[in-house]
Amino acid sequence: MSFYLLPVGLTYLGDGISANRFDGVNLMKTLGGKKVMFVGDSLTTNQYVSFLCLLHAAVPNATFSFSSDNRSLSAVTFEDYNVTVMYYKSHYLVDIVNENIGRVLKLDSVQIGGSIWLTADVLVFNTWRWWLSSGSRQEWDYMQDGGQTVKDMNRTVAFSRALATWANWVDSSINSSTTRVFFQGISPDHYRGTEWGEKGSTCEGETEPSSPSAYYGGPIPQEAIVKQQLSNMSKPVYLFDITYLSQLRKDAHPSRYNGVNFRNDCTHWCVGGLPDTWNLLLYAALVHSI
Predict the structure, then answer these.
(1) CATH number, domain 3-90+114-127+156-289
(2) Catalytic annotation, pick one of 241, 246, 268, 276
């Protein structure tokens, strides 16, 4: 089997290891001397910050240091345990290169990020949200795949090609005996109240999760692309199958209480909150696999 699915209903992941409790002290000891890197966009940041908070809550008196290159990479090191937790900003996973024609999103290259990712012992990847961006939020002017350069293409197709490039990099570059690789599943948003039977509403003002019987949103198409790509890989990759459990959490967003111009944010997640649940899955997998 080329990837391991961590499903919504997971309670135990082998050897009696429970995914219902995050034991930060135990995890620190397990990770001693290792580097954990979260790679992706601001949804990855949600999980990264949650992970740091859970660890700090477990060892509040531990000495730690912070470093950042002020661009893409930041790191917190828990000195007493020699554990470093990093975040590497990469909205698309593949490279963006400045060329004469402008900013080119290279769907077939991960050379820039790949050299940095290899410094970690545990890698948690995520991408999808930024593939939908346009206008001033679009970070590229052209897409390039092999010898073909285009102004734009179907974003799901581009996402699929980039994911294949990332998968090829993992298969060719990762030593599975020393490095663990995870992929954070597709994170949903809650701007369409019809998904939970409230036409015209958003996550604003929601205080309770949806029940499974009252959720009508259905699967996100990109979920299938991720699962198919991971199933074709030769190296083991753990998938956090977070989509459905997150779809039920319309109550878990910052909404207008995010402190940034009070815009209604139904994309990101409160910390602590749902990302803590994602990290329960990460904890179970790490303790089981290292």
Answers:
(1) 3.40.50
(2) 268
Contacts of 70 (CB under 8 A, 6+ apart): none
For residue range 99-155, list pLDDT tens digits in order: 999 999 999 999 999 999 999 999 999 999 999 999 999 999 999 998 899 999 999
Tokens of 217: 């949103």
**Kind of pairing, strands 148-150 and 102-106?**
unpaired
Its sign, for the CA torsion 272, 186, 180, 95, is negative
Q: Is the backbone of residue 33 left (phi > 0), alpha (psi -120 to 50) or beta?
A: left
Q: Is 42 a catalytic residue?
A: yes
Of 95, 189, 241, 265, the active-site residue reads 265
Catalytic residue among 18, 42, 173, 201: 42
Q: What is the mean pLDDT of residues 217-233?
A: 95
User: Could you give the C-alpha distances from 180 to 46, 124, 125, 285, in angstroms and in order?
Assistant: 20, 9, 11, 10
Q: Which residues sit opposite 86 in a β-bridge?
A: 37, 75
Active site annotation includes 268: yes
Instruction: Find all residues with CB under 8 Å of 161, minimum gap 6, and list them.
Output: 107, 108, 145
State pTM to two decimals: 0.92
DSSP 104: E
